[in-house]
Amino acid sequence: MIRAVVVDDEVNAREELAALLRETGAVEVVATCADAVAAIPAIRRERPDVLFLDVQMPAVSGFELLSLLDPDELPPVVFVTAHDAFAVKAFEANAVDYLLKPVEAERLARTVERLKLGQARPPPAALAPAIRRIPCQGTRSIRLVDLDEIESVRSSEAGVYVVTAGGEHFTDLTLRVLEERAGFLRVHKQHLVNVERVVEILFGDEDGSTVRTRSGLSVPVSRRYLPLLKQRLGL
Q: Among 86, 92, 151, 212, who pairs with 197 as Cys (CB 3.0-4.6 Å)?
């Protein structure tokens, strides 16, 4: 049985596709998501065999979602959209297939057969677009934080938080993704820093040093990463 996650902001399209997939008898829909941000923890949790992904969605598009996922979490992708203008870009992203809405059962069956052959591969990480904004979870909202607002990123048992001059914001993105695709520099096992916001390095003892950002935030720097920080700062 092929395990699938369906992501589409249109509820009717989402439910119809999920129903068509179940009717094939070969696909188990393990999660449906109304937006790309909600899809991140669902994909991490379910580890699906395939992702059926709408292209045009509010806040974060389907293509942008690819950049927000850890490469180890990214499943093969089938893009689903009402417009054929994205076909070339979809196949450049190594998509398994490209379905036009409304999805027809016969056309979907050919996609499922392709998946059953086991030839699908996840999109190469190198083709994922660079991150421009980081989606952060609010109580009943999604806040998109521009990279230049962020001073540091920290990880704890409670999760990953981006830190700005105005406060901290929870995100489902991993430190690895933010380091590799947002350009933040790792300075500690649990901390990244935006080097453009660093104003001072305070050298410490054997336990490491500290950087101070423009807003006065202190971020620990371990001995392992201090040479990399100095190199990035041209010191």
A: 151
Give residue-wise pLDDT tens across range 24-81.
999 999 999 999 999 999 999 999 999 999 988 988 888 889 889 888 888 889 999 8
Length of the chain: 235
CB 56 within 8 A of CB 101: no
Give residue 161's pLDDT: 97
Give the CATH class of 2-127.
alpha beta
- In the chain, CATH 2.40.50.1020 sits at 133-232
What pLDDT does residue 123 have? 61
133-232 fold: OB fold (Dihydrolipoamide Acetyltransferase, E2P) (2.40.50)
| 3-class SS string, the chain | CEEEEEECCCHHHHHHHHHHHHHCCCEEEEEEECCHHHHHHHHHHHCCCEEEEECCCCCCCHHHHHHHCCHHHCCCEEEEECCHHHHHHHHHCCCCEEEECCCCHHHHHHHHHHHHCCCCCCCCHHHCCCCCEEEEECCCCEEEEEHHHEEEEEEECCEEEEEECCEEEEECCCHHHHHHHCCCEEEECCEEECHHHEEEEECCCCCCEEEEECCCCEEEECCCCHHHHHHHCCC
Across the chain, which has 235 residues, the per-10-residue mean pLDDT values are 96 96 96 95 95 91 88 88 68 76 94 82 59 86 92 95 95 93 94 96 83 94 92 88
